[in-house]
Amino acid sequence: MSDSRSQRAPEPTKTKTLSMTRPIPGLQYDWTAPALVHFGWGRRIELAKTVRTISGANSSGAPANRAFIQGGSRTLAATTAYADLLRSLRDDGLQVVELPVQSREPLVEDVDAAVMLLRTAGAGPGDVVVAIGGGSAIDLAKAAAAVSVQPHSQNIGDYLEGVGRGLTLQVRPLPVVALPTTGGTGTEATRNAVITGVRPAFKKSLRSILLVPSAVLIDPELGVTVPANVTAWSGMDAITQLIESFVSCRRSPLPQALAREALPAAWNSLPVVVRNGSNRPAREALAHAAFVSGLCLANSGLGLAHGVAAALGSQHGVPHGLACAALLPLSIRANLSAVRPLYAELALLVGAAPPESDPDLAAPLLLDAVYNLLAELEIPSRLAAFGVKREHLDALAEGSQGNSLNGNPRPIGTEELRRLLETAL
Length: 425
Ligand SMILES: [Fe+2]
Prior knowledge:
By secondary structure, this protein is an alpha/beta fold. The chain has helices at 47-57, 74-77, 80-91, 108-120, 135-147, 228-247, 253-275, 280-300, 304-316, 320-335, 340-349, 359-376, 393-399, 403-406, 414-423, and strands at residues 36-39, 66-71, 95-99, 127-133, 176-180, 192-197, 202-207, 215-218. The protein has 15 helices and 8 strands. It binds fe (ii) ion. Fe (ii) ion binds at residues 185, 237, 241, 306, 320, 324.
């Protein structure tokens, strides 16, 4: 029998220490998404329940008592569906406070005014901001819900990338429930809000992980009253987001898998829904693709078309979706040699190339298919159609640099971009 006192103490376990500074090669990605998503035809009737769920899930645990509504357009605000939504909230015992409807992409002044209204009303725990409309309404709601509760400044300009004091959000925003109606921007899934300045002209983002909406309620039926041209532009925005995120230098496997699933149906459905706005399967496919495109851009970034679209919007007043659509061919042309196999895969997905195609032959077919789709939707792809002249190109190229362009498959400097834009005049 051995004497326990004579036993040697166990050797200290040798553990491998992992470096805290060196990146580990191999598969890496981040993933951001809204915590709660409800999708389906007619499901807007679940708005009050969603508001209560989100309010109860916030850090204060306070029950919902007020819903601040940010509506997206006067046309939408005049619909029966919109009135029914507000009534359903009141019937559920919620106090409804309507913020002024804005029928434009949100300006700095629009956000500051909405922030002032929220602060004057004492919005805080137990209150929820509900955005009903297109990307503009949702961006405005996200920005106002965030800035209104910050302690250091209540001016949106102080938080915008590359514009003001570069402040970051310190306090969790008021919870936001997003009900997208136009099926395009995907901002219901993203961590940024795009805000426009007039003097000087800019489109810049408020960006924070805290900006992802708390809940998303997508009812494709809300899209049936959207005019055909807005449907076409916002649908092309979604398609551009799916394509640019798929080839982005920040591309990652989850968004790519989602894009593979959503793109074919969106591609085929867009012309159908532009011709017949109440076609249910086509509306569903498009609303789904729009949401998925938001997940993709939030997690993979975008590219040239979105970089230039921001400048085309702020400098020439071109609506976002229309600008993205018009610039998609240029984006593909500029990146064709850098990501040829990925474009070839997309060409296969949308039926532009036969299975087993040689990537060298299939990739350019995607470009042809985009031109055909734009022609079918009567969307121009020449910059001259938007009043852009040669003398505007320096400012356009300069204003395009930023976050979206940073996601492009290959770096494109201002000089090269100017030359590329000249080919699209
Ligand atoms: Fe977009």
